[in-house]
Each structure stands twice: as C-alpha cells, then as structure tokens.
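Why do we bother with holo predictions? Because pocket geometry can differ from the apo form. Keep that in mind while you read this record for D-xylonic acid.
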Amino acid sequence: LILAACGGANGSDGATGAGGNDATAGQAATQRVIKAGIGLNEDHPEGQGLLKFKEIVEQKTGGKIKVETYFAAQLGDDQQMTEALKAGTLEVTVPSTSPLVGTVKEFGIFDFPFLFNSGEEADAILDGPIGQKILEKLPEHNLVGLSYWENGFRNLTNNQHPVAKLEDFQGLKIRTMQNEVHLDAFQALGANPTPMAFSEVFTALEGKTVDGQENPLATILSNKYYEVQDYLSMTRHVYTPFAFLISKSFWDQLTPEEQTIIREASIEAGKYQRELSRKADQEALDALTKEGMKVNELSDAEKERIKQVIQPVIDKYSEQFGRDLVDQLNQQLAEIRKQ
Ligand code: TK8
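The structure, written out:
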C-alpha cells in the first residue's frame, strides 16, 4: 500500500492524489504501509519475529514506513498469501518453503527427510550460496525473497497410538503440507497422507477427518493441538524453513535506501526469530507433557529403518529438482560437518 500523506479521503490515490487541502500539501511526503500476514499466532516465534521486523522498520524509517501485522492466517493460508503478494494486494508474508514448491520447485530440496542434523546446519545452507540461489528464482514470479527464518524440526502427533517404529505408520491418516515430497514420504512409510492448508488442520484433527499431523513443537503448543491429539512422537523427521517474501511490485517502488532498511530488518528480525524458535522448541516439550500429551522417542535403529524406506523418494525428487543442486547441497553439508 502506498498512501499519500496529503491524501485525506482520497488517500489511496497515491502520491499524485488530488489532496492539497491540508498542511502537508506540496511536501510530497509519501507514507508507505506494509501489510504483513502470517499463518501462525502472535505468541509463536514467527509472530514475535514479525513484530521485531515491524519495530526495526518503523524505527529506522522514523515511522515513514508502517508495518501492519496480521496473524493466524487471518489473510489466508501460506499459498493464498503468496498469491496475494504476486498480485500486489499484500506486501509481506513468511510462509513455510514447502507449499512454495508450486512456484519454485527447488525449494523442495529442503523437504528431504533427515537432511539437516541441527538448526545451525540449516542456517549455513540457507544463508549460503544454495539458499540464496533458490531465492533468486523468485523475482520472475513477482516475489522477492529477503531471508530465511526458522519453522523448525517437525514431530508427529496423532490420537491412535505412539509411533515408535516403522510399522506404527501403517494406515495412519496424516495431514501433510501441500508438498509432494512430504506426501510421497508418508506414503512410502505406509501412512495415509492428506495434503491440507495449515488453517484447516485444527478442525480436521478435532473432527477426526485425519488421525494426526506433524509440525514443530512450538506450533503444536501455540495452536493447541494437544487439546485434540494424545500422542507426540519425537520423529524430528524434517526441518522446515520459512522464507521471508515481499511483493516485487511493491519492492520495485521503494528507494534503494528503503530496500536496504527492509532487507536488513528482515535479516535482523530473522536472527532474533531463530533464537526464539530454538528456545521455544526446548521449552515446548515440558509444556506439552504438562498438557497431558504422551511423548515417546524413536530409537536410532528405527530411525535408520525409516530413512531406508524414504531414500527412494529422495532419489526420485533429486532427479526432479536437479542432480547438480542436490550434489552441491550434500557436498556443502559434508564440509560443514567436517568443521
Ligand atoms: C503456517 C505454516 C505452518 C506449517 C504447516 O502458515 O503448514 O504445517 O508448518 O507453520 O507455514
């Protein structure tokens, strides 16, 4: 949104608006408003990160750029908000990279199960040449990717039984994100996966349309899934990044100085957000146990069996996303692990 400060009732006409009826007329002071929407709640690390972004941008621009925040999928789910950015009707969203594969398929490499061993490994890849190369594919879709934030390692909840071994996946109806790697991986494990927008998950769990879902602990807590799910299995089967996106049509109207402020704010807020996310991941387990969830770990041997069943899915999608890219990813991971 770009509002002329002198606009009065016709403010949305923009900087050339008719205005002229108040004291600011003639100063051509352009006030910009960034509408920013996310899927998670304000109390979630992603919500707190977005508030940090707002604080930095408003402070550094002396209030010339205002950020209006919308949480809990009020403006739609990840895919809908991303489409709104493309259309130029929303300025910022911070979706999981997984439902973005319809726009840039290469984001799918981050959906490979058991790819990262820690958040720090993910940071190194996402902030390094591979993560950046994928963000560079966004502008041709009228999107600009400014940084990666953390959704985190995903764990499985359901209301049938603890999932402690490979066979326990058999027949479980699991909601997945709208992402074919996730879908195929759960199918390979013998589960019965259903892709669904995040905003519909609680109702689907409550109404028992599905038996379970998987998300990082902070989300299981913030979205109160413990109210409708009995079992929490610590699968940590995949790490999901968030991508901080801004509408390209809005971005192109900014001055270089404004672009720098916004880019740096998204990175700085992202650092803060990643820290909060890691703290929340540790603290949420206690809280979920107190809420009565029955928590189980998986043995290394079972995780190994699960990995073997999933490997053909990773092979298949490595071809689709590009062998070179996946080789480069594995090479860089090997280097990080040597350090
Ligand atoms: C929130 C989503 C969510 C994701 C999912 O908009 O869909 O399960 O993990 O956090 O991005």
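Residues 42 and 48 are 6 Å apart (CA to CA).
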